[in-house]
Amino acid sequence: MATVEEPREKASSGTLLATSGPYTERMFTVGSRGGLIGRSRKCRISLLHDCEVSHNHAVIEVNSNGLCIRDVGSTFGTYLNDKRLSEPKRASDAHKLKPCDSIKVGQTSLRWRPIEMIRTAVAVAVPRPFGLPALHIQQLAQSTHASTEVRKELLEVLMADYKEHTEAVTSFRRAFTPIDLPQLYRRMQLLLHVQAQAVAHACHLRDTIGAQATASLAADASPPSSLAADHNSDCERLCELIREVASLRSECLQLHAEQRDRLAELISVHRHYSDSLVATPLRALLLPQSHSPQ
């Protein structure tokens, strides 16, 4: 009897999800040995349509510290968690990649998802199948406790269950990978930090120009012309902080809405899988049949 082999995954270190730029929502698979990032079609992660990305921009590589990223001499630089790795057209040192790290090259922002993180999330959400179909086929072929018809029916159900489980794993990975709660958390922390700076600066200005002038300055986000020249720099700084707070609030609201929709999609996939488990033919085949009273 022919055996059925479990499908093997291609060797992968993880995925990079584009969160902004011309490739938003696209996922790039990073091989076990990493690869180049750049505009060249030969790059592992080819960003041909990002005009600010160099021909060979950065590289993800494996060294003694694990998977790392370094700039290979790009013009506009490579940013890891908002920090530039090197000066223009100068290569950088290697920096270790951690789960949910943010990488920015040109106009494209990428979020790193190691394969272990994806596998763990899928393993928690999707139970493992009963075993390889090939194993069940061999056991059924040797069984003398069931008729040929029963063995055939059970085998068909097992194969269908195994196929459904494989499809569920794929659906869960697609639904889980875009979820980026760490990014939302970091933006919220930055918003709280900038808000605290703005409040502290406003309190300082209140003591120098008065409460009414400070309140008017905060409401308009621009310094009034009646202020003395020696207060202009402090007023401009407060206006900058207020504008930054407004921008971060808008960004956080947008990220919150995006993550809410992505979580809703993940919950929907999980609910669909749970419903399929309840309705699986294997359950009906294995559970004792109820007999209505005569």
Question: How is this fold's topology laid out?
Answer:
Layout (H helix, E strand, L loop, with lengths): L13 E7 L6 E4 L4 E4 L6 E2 L11 E6 L2 E6 L6 E3 L2 E2 L10 E2 L5 E4 L2 E7 H11 L7 H10 L5 H29 L4 H29 L1 H10 L11 H47 L2 H6 L8
Parallel strand pairs: 3-4
Antiparallel strand pairs: 1-2, 1-11, 3-5, 5-6, 6-9, 7-8, 7-10, 10-11
Summarize the structure.
This protein has 294 residues and is an alpha+beta fold. The chain has helices spanning 115-125, 133-142, 148-176, 181-209, 211-220, 232-278, 281-286, and strands spanning 14-20, 27-30, 35-38, 45-46, 58-63, 66-71, 78-80, 83-84, 95-96, 102-105, 108-114. The strands form two sheets. It has a six-stranded antiparallel β-sheet with strand order 2-1-11-10-7-8.
Q: How would you sum up this structure, described in words?
A:
The strands form two sheets. Strands 2-1-11-10-7-8 form a six-stranded antiparallel β-sheet. A five-stranded mixed β-sheet has the order 4-3-5-6-9, with no helix packed on it. It has seven helices and eleven strands. With 294 residues, the protein is an alpha+beta fold. The two termini are 44 Å apart. It has helices spanning 115-125, 133-142, 148-176, 181-209, 211-220, 232-278, 281-286; strands spanning 14-20, 27-30, 35-38, 45-46, 58-63, 66-71, 78-80, 83-84, 95-96, 102-105, 108-114. The longest helix is centred in the C-terminal third of the chain and has 47 residues, at 232-278. A hairpin with a 6-residue loop joins strand 1 and strand 2 (27-30).
